[in-house]
Amino acid sequence: MATPVDISPNKDGGVTKEIIKEGVGSELPSPGGTVIVHYTGTLLDGTKFDSSKDRNDPFQFELKKGTVIKAWDIGVATMKKGEVAILTCAPEYAYGETGSPPKIPPNSTLKFEIEMIDWKGEDLSPEKDGSIERYQIVQGKDPITPNEGALVNVHLTGVYNEKIFEDRDVQFTLGEGEDVGVIEGVEKALESFKQGEKSKLKIKSKYAFKKEGNSEFNIPPNATVEYTVELKSFEKGVNAWSLNNSERIEQAKIYKEKGTNYFKACRYNLATKMYKTVTSFLEYRKDFEEDLKTERENLILSAYLNLALCHLKMDRNVEAKDACNEALILSPQNEKALFRRGQAYLALASPEIAIKDFQEVLRVEPKNTAATKQIAICNNLIKKQLAKEKKLYANMFDKFAEEDKQKEEEKLREQPDVMCGALGEWGQEERPGGRDATAFEKENPNILMLNANGTDEFQNM
């Protein structure tokens, strides 16, 4: 059994650790990650006050987030996978002067036998679905983190299937990493990095190379990749809240110009980000002076119109429609907004709605030949839809009629055949007098000759 070691930050003996079973490997859990442990807690006299093992229910918590006693955040951070250790925790690193009644008295020194089962990285994904996990290697020094628009200097090492596919230094504006080949997952993660931090990132395909993969790096579709990222330095981006109205206008112009340049280069995703930033700088602040007020409204309107165009280019038709709706709130008879919303509805297979927008365009500008062409397209699609529906309904009615006919025939088949036996197959005992069948009756078995003697007295009937 190992000798207890003082692992308290101040070396004051407040937390000692005694390893009972060595762990495997060299990796340790990183701050912010979720650790999974079993534990048994006792007082110094051996009284057990809690045990996850007794409940057969491993305990999970986020490391270094202050959700457990100080001794745990300190001690568990030093444990490898599979390791079992005893932490002895002085009151100031446990429950202090108050204790935790009724089981833990005030000023109690506690012992915890802890088994490290496993851990997961810190979830940095926006949806908290584990699609971006961080494992810190070197903690950063400064509590400030980069924001969108910050100029960052990083070193990236990308690994797939244990092979390095990129290893480089790169400088870029956060939010525009796509322009220099930096995947979205790295950008999202960097928003939580501190200067000097080095971390391993596990990034699923939705924030990496998606369903397309990357042929240059030999990465297949829907692949999870790993990056080791070091944030060497950064310069904070401009925060909208720190600017006066005139400065907001100037920043919005800068982002609008960036968006236009990205659009011209067919970088529609980046252009979308820039136009959204324009609205974020101006949308929620409305106390502009008269001269700036008009400029603000024109910039926001332009941003929404351009957003709609970007979304149409990327076949994001619902988003395009929504952007047009925002533009039409600002300018209800805007020709471009009406036309682009009509295009969105048309792409969403709603020509009967789209045609109304194109007709409204012609009311605003009767010479708009593009709208006239779109109306013709809508009418053609509507006719095709009606013909298709008519054919569909006709087929349905024919089907129903055939089913009704089959049901009727089935009912008739279930009824007794009155021509069978009683009328249709005459036996000798059924003839008057029990006589033999005449030649006519043999040729016509379903007809009964009524005369008993077989004469022709009924021949004129």
Describe this entry's structure for a reader:
The chain has helices spanning 52-55, 70-76, 184-190, 245-264, 268-282, 290-313, 317-330, 335-347, 351-364, 369-414, 439-443, and strands at residues 5-6, 15-21, 34-43, 48-51, 59-62, 84-89, 110-120, 122-123, 132-138, 151-160, 163-173, 198-203, 225-235. It is flat. It contains eleven helices and 13 strands. Strands 1, 2, 3, 4, 5, 6 and 7 form a seven-stranded antiparallel beta sheet that branches. The protein has a six-stranded antiparallel beta sheet with strand order 8-9-12-13-10-11, covered by helices on one side. Helices cover 37% and strands 20% of the residues. With 461 residues, it is of the alpha+beta class. It catalyses: [protein]-peptidylproline (omega=180) = [protein]-peptidylproline (omega=0).
Helix content: 25-40%
Order of SSEs: EEEEHEHEEEEEEHEEHHHHHHHH
Question: How many helix segments?
Answer: 11
Report how far the terminal alpha carbons are from each other: 125 Å
> Largest sheet, if any?
7 strands, antiparallel
- The amount of beta strand, in percent, is 15-25%
Biased composition (Basic and acidic residues): 428-444
GO molecular function: peptidyl-prolyl cis-trans isomerase activity
Keywords: Isomerase, Repeat, Rotamase, TPR repeat
Enzyme class: isomerase
Q: How would you summarize this macromolecular structure in one to three sentences?
A:
This is peptidylprolyl isomerase. Residues 428-444 have a biased composition (Basic and acidic residues). The chain is an alpha+beta fold and 461 residues long.
